[in-house]
Amino acid sequence: MKSLFEYGRKLYFTVLIAGIVGSVALFNTGYELEAAAVTTVAVVSLLLIGRKSTKPIFDERDTALAEESTHAAVMWSGAFGGVAMIVISIGIGLGRWSYPDWAAPYYLSWGAIISLAALIEVLKRYRVIE
């Protein structure tokens, strides 16, 4: 009988997609804690699959593509975020706009993710990490 870990890449991406879809569906239907649980189970499963797989999950082409796309995503997100922040700051400063309190966690989460991605890019550039 074949072990689940022999499926490697297919199993990894099946768990990844199922985790994303399940988490988003639960979150959008008001089950935030359940969505967090699904995300946690998916992340732990992905780590386990990566360690126990009998076949490689990613090769050098995947790594090169990920580095290139991460760099482009950080660059464009930073540029868009910078322009949007200036426009939003002007609108709020002039008293024309405001945002509801419920939106703050989304902005803070997005900002934390972009900041982490930018920090990783800087650390890679200065060869602190690979």
What does this structure look like?
The protein is mostly helical. Helix content is 75%, strand content 0%. The protein has helices at residues 9-28, 32-52, 60-93, 104-125. The two termini are 38 Å apart. The model has no long low-confidence stretch (mean pLDDT 85).
Short description:
With 130 residues, the chain is an all-alpha fold. It has helices at residues 9-28, 32-52, 60-93, 104-125.
Protein topology:
Elements: H1 9-28, H2 32-52, H3 60-93, H4 104-125
Helix pairs in contact: 1-2, 3-4
Number of beta-strand segments: 0
Helix-and-strand structural type: mainly alpha
Order of helices and strands: HHHH
- Tell the overall outline: flat
Percent in strands: under 5%
Helix content: over 70%
Q: What is the number of helical segments per DSSP (H or I, 4+ residues)?
A: 4
What is the distance, rounded to the nearest whole angstrom, between the alpha carbons of the first and last residues? 38 Å
Q: What does the radius of gyration come to? A: 19 Å
Largest sheet: none
